[in-house]
Structures are given as structure tokens and as C-alpha cells.
């Protein structure tokens, strides 16, 4: 009972803290004159991954690599199968392929990079440096390519910033939003990890499974909120772009930082099963972006069914 309440309280704090931090960061960026393009690309696209960042770093520092890695891999799987599936069921999604093809390709390449670097059974500081360098290269490439010409991707990232409403309007309100958001994220990560680890031990479930499922879904709630709202507003490009940006930052940024702070051994089940599901989910999304450019309700239902099957297998076979 205690572990379950701690888990739910942690998820709630992470969700509220992530929301407060994003709104404060977006308002601060716009206040100091950062372009909507850069704000959408970095602050919104990556800011929704703040819960994953705090939880994975906390887990890595506290010698809980299965949760640190599982949180990232599970979040990337859930972002595509669960969140985009849910968005498509709510409202069929039609996207501009030119706005999303680059980021879709980067998600697949980042997934392949993860598989290649983790082949030896662990991610070390050298691997972390490669991840972080890859993220820096992606950001420079994305910003330069979008700022030089009028392309759909630039419009999409600018629209991501415009999706954020009810932003703090004064300097002190921005500071309060940032401080409160950060505090909630830190406190929420502690509660989430306490509840998740206790629950795993009480139920005889591995930390890897808990990290890949319960923790991953809990830390992905900000992405879910942004994408669902965008889908309801018929802004399919923003919904999909938010997921792609989050998945890129999860692998290249969060995993890179976590592995730099503390080398991360890979759980055998992640190497045998979960990383391939992650790559397969990315491949399905890219196939959608390069072919039909439309995600219908039945295709969204198929993604949700795939996620249900993944969760079932996670708790029964592994």
C-alpha cells in the first residue's frame, strides 16, 4: 500500500513539475527573445522529457541501472505505441512528411546507435560522449536547416511553442514556475523510485520490468498531455513532432548524461527483447511518415494493441 501510494504521488509530482518547468522555460525563452523556432525545437520538444531526465539520473547515481535504462527504452516504446496510438484513436492524424522525415530518421539512427553501443552489455563514459555529441550535432543541423529557409519543419517547431498557453507573464512568476517545477521533479523522482523499487521487491518483479513499464509510463505523461492536446486541436504535426523530439532527447541526451555520471550495465532482457521492440516501433512510425502520411483510427488501435501485447509479455514471459 505504501509503495503504491508513493508511486502514484511520485507520478503526480513529476507530471505537475514537468508542466510547471516547461511553461516557465517557454515563457523565459520568449521573454529574452529566443525565437519560437528554437523554443519549440529545444524547450518544448525536449522539455517534456524532464521527468525522464530526473528519474534516470537519480537512478543512475543510486546504482539502479535497470531503472535508468528501462525508463528510457520503455518511454520511447510507449511514446510511439501508446501515446501516438491514443492520439490517432482520438483524431485521425494527417502529417506533412517534410516536417517530420528528418526527425523520424534520427530516431531510427539513435535507436541503432543505442543497440550498437550497448552490444558489449554496458554503456560507459565513452559511449555517453558519443550520445551527447550526437545530440549536439542534431541540434545544430536542425536549427541551421530550419532557420535558413521556409520549410514545414520550422513551422512545426514554432507551432510547438505556440501550443503552450497560460504562460507566466512576469519575471518573478517565471522564476517561481521554474523553482517549483524543479522541486516537484526532484521530489517526485525520489517518491517514484522508492515506490517502484519497493513494489518490484514486494511483487517479485525485476527492476527492469518496473522501469520499462510503470516508471516509463509515469515519466511520459507530459509528452502524452502535449500530444493529446495537439491532436484534439487537429495539429497532427505538433503531436508527432513532440514524440520524435522526446525520443531523440531520451536516447542521445538523457541516456548520455546518465551513462556519463555512472556506467550503466544492460539488463539481459533489454538486450534480447526491449531494444528490438523500441527499434521496431521507430521503424513503424517512419514507415507511416514515408508512405501514407496519415494515421487512421484503426492504425492507432493497432499501435495500442501492440503496446498491450508488449506489456503483457513484459509481465508474463520475462
Automatic annotation (TrEMBL):
<feature type="transmembrane region" description="Helical">
    <location>
        <begin position="104"/>
        <end position="122"/>
    </location>
</feature>
<keyword id="KW-0812">Transmembrane</keyword>
<keyword id="KW-0472">Membrane</keyword>
<feature type="domain" description="Sodium/calcium exchanger membrane region">
    <location>
        <begin position="5"/>
        <end position="143"/>
    </location>
</feature>
<dbReference type="InterPro" id="IPR044880">
    <property type="entry name" value="NCX_ion-bd_dom_sf"/>
</dbReference>
<feature type="transmembrane region" description="Helical">
    <location>
        <begin position="209"/>
        <end position="232"/>
    </location>
</feature>
<feature type="transmembrane region" description="Helical">
    <location>
        <begin position="172"/>
        <end position="197"/>
    </location>
</feature>
<dbReference type="GO" id="GO:0008273">
    <property type="term" value="F:calcium, potassium:sodium antiporter activity"/>
</dbReference>
<dbReference type="GO" id="GO:0005886">
    <property type="term" value="C:plasma membrane"/>
</dbReference>
<dbReference type="InterPro" id="IPR004837">
    <property type="entry name" value="NaCa_Exmemb"/>
</dbReference>
<feature type="transmembrane region" description="Helical">
    <location>
        <begin position="244"/>
        <end position="264"/>
    </location>
</feature>
<feature type="transmembrane region" description="Helical">
    <location>
        <begin position="128"/>
        <end position="144"/>
    </location>
</feature>
<feature type="transmembrane region" description="Helical">
    <location>
        <begin position="276"/>
        <end position="293"/>
    </location>
</feature>
<keyword id="KW-1133">Transmembrane helix</keyword>
<feature type="transmembrane region" description="Helical">
    <location>
        <begin position="300"/>
        <end position="317"/>
    </location>
</feature>
<dbReference type="InterPro" id="IPR004481">
    <property type="entry name" value="K/Na/Ca-exchanger"/>
</dbReference>
<feature type="transmembrane region" description="Helical">
    <location>
        <begin position="77"/>
        <end position="95"/>
    </location>
</feature>
<dbReference type="GO" id="GO:0005262">
    <property type="term" value="F:calcium channel activity"/>
</dbReference>
<dbReference type="GO" id="GO:0006874">
    <property type="term" value="P:intracellular calcium ion homeostasis"/>
</dbReference>
<dbReference type="Pfam" id="PF01699">
    <property type="entry name" value="Na_Ca_ex"/>
</dbReference>
<protein>
    <submittedName>
        <fullName>Inner membrane protein yrbG</fullName>
    </submittedName>
</protein>
<feature type="domain" description="Sodium/calcium exchanger membrane region">
    <location>
        <begin position="175"/>
        <end position="315"/>
    </location>
</feature>
Amino acid at each position: 500500500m505504501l509503495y503504491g501510494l508513493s508511486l502514484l504521488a511520485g507520478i503526480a509530482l513529476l507530471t505537475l513539475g514537468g508542466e510547471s518547468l516547461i511553461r516557465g522555460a517557454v515563457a523565459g525563452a520568449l521573454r529574452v527573445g529566443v525565437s519560437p523556432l528554437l523554443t519549440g525545437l529545444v524547450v518544448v520538444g525536449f522539455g517534456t522529457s524532464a521527468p525522464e531526465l530526473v528519474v534516470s539520473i537519480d537512478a543512475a547515481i543510486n546504482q539502479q541501472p535497470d531503472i535508468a535504462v528501462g525508463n528510457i527504452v520503455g518511454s520511447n516504446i510507449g511514446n510511439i505505441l501508446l501515446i501516438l496510438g491514443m492520439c490517432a484513436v482520438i483524431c485521425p492524424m494527417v502529417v506533412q512528411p517534410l516536417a517530420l522525415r528528418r526527425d523520424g530518421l534520427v530516431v531510427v539512427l539513435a535507436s541503432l546507435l543505442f543497440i550498437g553501443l550497448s552490444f558489449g552489455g554496458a554503456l560507459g563514459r565513452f559511449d555517453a560522449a558519443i550520445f551527447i555529441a550526437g545530440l549536439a550535432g542534431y541540434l545544430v543541423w536542425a536549427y541551421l536547416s530550419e532557420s535558413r529557409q521556409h520549410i514545414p519543419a520550422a513551422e512545426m517547431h514554432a507551432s510547438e511553442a505556440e501550443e503552450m498557453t497560460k504562460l507566466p507573464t512576469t519575471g518573478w512568476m517565471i522564476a517561481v514556475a521554474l523553482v517549483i517545477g524543479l522541486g516537484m521533479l526532484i521530489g517526485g523522482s525520489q517518491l517514484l523510485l522508492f515506490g517502484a523499487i519497493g513494489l518490484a521487491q514486494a511483487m517479485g518483479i525485476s527492476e527492469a520490468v518496473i522501469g520499462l513499464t510503470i516508471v516509463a509510463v509515469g515519466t511520459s505523461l507530459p509528452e502524452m498531455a502535449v500530444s493529446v492536446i495537439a491532436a484534439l486541436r487537429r495539429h497532427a504535426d505538433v503531436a508527432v513532432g513532440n514524440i520524435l523530439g522526446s525520443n531523440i532527447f531520451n536516447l542521445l541526451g538523457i541516456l548520455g548524461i546518465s551513462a556519463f555520471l555512472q556506467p550503466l550495465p544492460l539488463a539481459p532482457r533489454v538486450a534480447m527483447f526491449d531494444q528490438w521492440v523500441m527499434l521496431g516501433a521507430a521503424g513503424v512510425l517512419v514507415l507511416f511518415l514515408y508512405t501514407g502520411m496519415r494515421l487512421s483510427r484503426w492504425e492507432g488501435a493497432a499501435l495500442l494493441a501492440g503496446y498491450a501485447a508488449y506489456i503483457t509479455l513484459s509481465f508474463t514471459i520475462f
